Amino acid sequence: MWIKRGREKPIRNRHPWIYSGAISQAEKAADGDLVRVVDHKGRFLARGYWNSQSQIQARILSWRDEAIDEAWWRRALSRAASLRAIRCVENGVDSENAAYRLLNAENDFVPGLIIDRYADWYVLQALTRYIDNQKPAIAAALADVTGARNIYERSDVEARKREGLQPAVGLLKGGPLPDVVEIDEEARFLVDIQRGQKTGFYLDQRDNRRLLGELVRRRCEESRDQARLLNVFSYSGGFALAAGNFDRLHSVNVDASRPALELAERNFQLNGYDESAHGETVEFIQADAFDYLRYCARERELFDFVVLDPPKLAQRKSQAQRAARGYKDLNLSAFKLVKAGGYLMSFSCSGAVSRKLFRKIVFGALADSGRGAQVIGQLSAASDHPVALSFPEGDYLKGLLLRVF
Question: Tell me, what's the pLDDT at 280?
Answer without folding.
Answer: 86
